[in-house]
From TrEMBL:
Recorded catalytic activity of this chain's protein: nicotinate beta-D-ribonucleotide + CO2 + diphosphate = quinolinate + 5-phospho-alpha-D-ribose 1-diphosphate + 2 H(+)
Listed Gene3D superfamilies: Aldolase class I, Quinolinate phosphoribosyl transferase, N-terminal domain
GO BP annotations, alphabetical order: NAD+ biosynthetic process; quinolinate catabolic process
Protein name as it appears in the record: Probable nicotinate-nucleotide pyrophosphorylase [carboxylating]
CDD domains per record: QPRTase (cd01572)
Length: 292
């Protein structure tokens, strides 16, 4: 029997506990208190079914481990044959999984499995398009915390499946000083000094700036590891790269789209983060067809 982890993207990690918990919540949401009353009323308990999950568009696949876990949670007699793995590019009409076993279990798991694969493949596909536009440069495409509540680990995993990279997973894994922190703390240097005085030696410090004067103040302090250049035009980004001269890592946010990412990459910045990767990714069109 194939395990969900066997279909994970080789360069991205998703905890088996995160998979199990997401699947449990999704099945509980869909099956409610009485299960699939339609299938239970119309399909004999002994009926067997075989179905194929098919990509109805071209793109990058993600979410197969969750689909497998959903079906397997409904019956120990489910057999699944994968045809691709997470992170694989697929053409329209390509079979993704073949599922066979008790018909009631196949039908009960259908929507949950498709929801996971559709949502995560949509993110992976959009990310892959951003990455394609930055090809040939050193720029890395990153996601943000603008994720669906409760699904952050899954959605950030999907970004990795598409060739992107992850920013913070939460407020607790890195310092990111934004404009409101600067305003409340009394300025760039005071906020950086307070941050450095409180954190451990393994915690990185990133600070957001929206002017070159702020960038100069950050550089003069020597207290930041990463500077987030917020909503700057291309000419300003070019000057920021010149001023930084490799002393800090530079990240761009705001206005990062497929239309702008190539020009952003050409400035020489290191990272570009786009909330759209997770909050605006179209659903990937995938279907489950019962084999005749």
């Amino acid at each position: 029997m194939i395990t969900p982890s066997a279909l994970l993207h080789t360069d991205a990690f998703l905890s088996p506990f995160a998979i199990a918990e997401a699947v449990r919540r999704a099945l509980e949401e869909d099956l409610g208190r009485a299960g699939d009353i339609t299938s239970n009323a119309t399909i004999p308990a002994e009926a067997h079914a075989q179905a194929t999950m098919v990509a109805r568009q071209a793109g990058t696949i993600a979410g197969l481990p969750l689909a497998v876990a959903a079906f397997q949670a409904l019956s120990p007699d489910i057999f699944i044959q994968p045809h691709v793995h997470d992170g694989d590019p697929v053409a329209r009409g390509i079979p993704v999984l073949t599922i066979s076993g008790p018909a009631r279990a196949v039908l009960a798991g259908e929507r949950t499995a498709l929801n996971f694969v559709g949502r995560l493949s949509g993110i992976a596909t959009l990310t892959a398009d951003y990455v394609r536009h930055a090809a040939g440069s050193k720029l890395r495409i990153c996601c943000t915390r603008k994720t669906t509540p409760g699904l952050r680990a899954l959605e950030k995993y999907a970004v990795r499946c598409g060739g992107g990279f992850n920013h913070r997973f939460g407020l607790d894994d890195a310092i990111l000083i934004k404009d409101n922190h600067i305003a409340v703390a009394g300025g760039v240097r005071p906020v950086l000094e307070r941050a450095r005085a409180r954190i451990g030696h393994l915690v990185k410090v990133e600070i957001e700036v929206d002017t070159l004067d702020q960038l100069k103040e950050v550089l003069a302090s020597g207290l930041a590891d990463v500077v987030l250049l917020d909503n700057m035009d291309i000419a300003t980004l070019q000057e920021a790269v010149r001023l930084a001269d490799g002393r800090v890592v530079l990240e761009v946010s705001g206005g990062v789209t497929q239309d702008t990412v190539a020009a952003i990459a050409a400035t020489g910045v290191d990272y570009a983060s786009a909330g759209a990767l997770t909050h605006s990714a179209p659903n990937f069109d995938v279907a489950l067809d019962i084999d005749a």
